[in-house]
Amino acid sequence: MSYTAPWRKLCNCRCPLHHGFPRTDYFQPGCACTITCDTQPMTLLAEQWGCALFLDQHGDLWHVNAMANGQWDWEHGGEIDTRADTYDDSVHIERLLREAARVLRRQIARPNC
């Protein structure tokens, strides 16, 4: 099994703006991407905060608010501002997601027994 970096994967979530194309922008107006698109390296659904947190193609933590009917407010998504009440916690979450991504990449590199 070969590993493809998320930013090199094509969008597979059926969004009319991104499907079948590299996804380099996470908050275009009209985006209908699901939160589980292959172009997102690591995603955490954070029901407690009413959003999803994910690492972008550079490994930085972003958020996107949940909306009704399983939709996501991509137009207002972005990095968590240093003035946000959740900033300190988000730094810790970002570190944990990066570590999880690193561990998973390491597992992919190992041959199956």
Question: How would you characterize the overall build of this protein?
Answer:
This protein is α+β, with helices and mostly antiparallel strands. It has one helix and four strands, in the order E-E-E-E-H. About 20% of the residues lie in helices and about 15% in strands. Strands 1-2-3-4 form a four-stranded antiparallel β-sheet. Strand 2 and strand 3 form a beta hairpin.
Strand content: 15-25%
In sequence order, what are the helices and strands, one letter per element?
Answer: EEEEH
The tally of beta strands, per DSSP, is 4
Low-confidence stretches: none
Distance between the termini: 13 Å
Helix content: 10-25%
Structural class, by secondary structure, is alpha+beta
Largest sheet: 4 strands, antiparallel
Work out the helix count: 1
Describe the strand arrangement of the main beta sheet, using strand numbers. Answer: 1-2-3-4
Integer-rounded radius of gyration = 15 Å
Mean pLDDT: 84
Shape: globular
Q: Can I get a quick summary?
A:
With 113 residues, this protein is an alpha+beta fold. It contains one helix and four strands. Helices cover 20% and strands 15% of the residues.
Reconstruct the topology from this structure.
Blueprint: E1 42-46, E2 51-55, E3 61-65, E4 78-79, H1 87-109
Antiparallel strand pairs: 1-2, 2-3, 3-4
Keywords:
single chain; 113 residues; alpha+beta; 4-stranded antiparallel β-sheet; 20% helix
